[in-house]
């Protein structure tokens, strides 16, 4: 469950004010809106990348409002995939891995074996994600 209550966040040139919603356990939510509406700011705040000025964020049964990102157990994938252009797909996946087996696990779980030898420049937007 994700519960956002009266969340306010300020970034240069923009303020997200009083956002309140709940996504039930097992539920799915979609964040839509025009450019500049605050979608990324909202998601970054939930993930802990941006601090909230006020309000609360509850994940499961735990208030994570004051926790750093690494303690929230939230993943955030940006629309623009930041890949190293000089590395192949497999090398990009392996770049930050602590265990070699983790690379194999990710490739298998995502069923992307066929992409691993390709240069990043040949990937479509969806493949980059």
Relative strand content: 15-25%
Distance between the termini: 25 Å
Strand order within the widest sheet? 2-1-3-4
The main pleated sheet reads as:
4 strands, antiparallel
Structure description:
The chain is an alpha+beta fold. It is built from 4 helices and 4 strands; from the N terminus they run E-E-H-E-E-H-H-H. It is 23% helix and 22% strand. Strand 1 and strand 2 form a beta hairpin. The mean pLDDT is 90.
Quick take:
This protein is an alpha+beta fold and 129 residues long. Helix content is 23%, strand content 22%. The protein has helices at 39-47, 89-94, 100-110, 125-128, and strands at residues 2-11, 14-23, 54-59, 62-63.
């Amino acid at each position: 469950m994700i519960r956002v209550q009266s969340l306010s966040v300020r970034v240069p040139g923009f303020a997200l004010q009083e956002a309140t919603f709940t996504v039930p356990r097992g539920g799915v939510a979609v964040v839509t809106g025009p450019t500049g509406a605050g979608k990324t700011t909202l998601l970054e705040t939930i993930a802990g990348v941006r601090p909230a000025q006020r309000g609360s964020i509850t994940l499961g049964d735990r208030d994570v409002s004051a926790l750093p990102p690494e303690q929230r157990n939230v993943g955030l994938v940006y629309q623009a995939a930041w890949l190293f252009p000089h590395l192949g797909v497999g090398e990009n996946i392996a770049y930050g891995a602590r265990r070699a087996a983790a690379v194999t696990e990710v490739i298998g779980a995502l069923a992307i074996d066929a992409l691993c030898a390709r240069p990043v420049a040949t990937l479509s937007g969806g493949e980059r994600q």
